[in-house]
Amino acid sequence: xMRKTPAFWYxxxxxxxxxxxxxxxxxxxxxxxxxxxxxxxxTVPVLCIGNITMGGSGKTxxxxxxxxxxxxxxxxxxxxxxxxxxxxxxxxxxKPAQHGFREIGDEPLLLARHAPCWVARKRAxxxxxxxxGGAGAIIMDDGFQNPSLHKNLSFLVIDAAAGFGNxxxxxxxxxxxxxxxxxxRADACILLGIKDENSRxxxxxxxxxxxxxxxxxxxxxxxxxxxxxxxxxxxAGIGLPQKFRETLETCGADVAEFFPFPDxxxxxxxxxxxxxxxxxxxxxxxITTEKDAVRLPAKIRESVKTLPVALQWQDxxxxxxxxxxxxxxxx
Length: 331
What we know:
Elements: H1 19-36, E1 46-50, H2 59-72, E2 77-81, E3 92-93, H3 101-104, H4 107-111, E4 117-119, H5 123-132, E5 137-141, E6 153-159, H6 179-182, E7 188-192, H7 197-209, E8 216-223, E9 231-236, H8 241-250, E10 254-260, H9 269-282, E11 285-288, H10 290-293, H11 298-301, E12 305-306, E13 309-313, H12 316-330
Parallel strand pairs: 1-5, 1-6, 2-4, 2-5, 6-7, 7-8, 9-10, 9-11, 11-12
Antiparallel strand pairs: 3-4, 8-13
């Protein structure tokens, strides 16, 4: 089970000194792997939606939004993902009526609501399966650091509030690689959660300081039809669970108590008892994310309210024109 995000990743405290050599080794091994791997080149465009931090940054909502644009442009997109937390190695086509999160992970169950989704530990094999299954384009949800499959377009998703954390590589910090290295391979960046032009310009300059010169697009994660009556006990097992609490409170929910869990957490019977007891104690309803809901036992899932979110581009015409131009060059 993945532990909770260490406080020093996004705080002011220095990481334990013993983690710095491990971070150096992690970074060097990752760079060596990318340098020595010859990627598989597929027959259809491959778009990667990735990030350079551990945990969630909004990749899955971005991947879904990009799939809608590709569909409107005349492509038949298929998703390709590792299926983190699932036991099936794949390649396997996700069938929500047959598969649960223990087989394929949680995110594939969300992706499969929008387009065919393939789970594969070996991304190249997954791409071949998607091509044989009729994909006109492949959208990788995560995999930016995976060198086994050639990407025609790579997007880096950045949560503007979390940024790059303390700037250190895992395990000393949240980074999968140093920003200046990752940004070299990015065709575009997608910044989430920036509302004003001053902040947008600050981020453009920050990225330029790392040598980045490619386009930057901005978007927001918007709660869908939020309606709250009475008190709620919230819980979330995502990369930064407190962000879900903040979203609930911003939408006007009365959050009587909140329980954070590790990302991709598989809820146990004891956890459910604790949550139900808190709900009774506060005379409140339970509420969580869509991603968490698919990891709940079926008996309780229908009684737990979810707050769906969807990506809203701040300039959808710009990202659509960018995708159209880039994909025309690959066809």
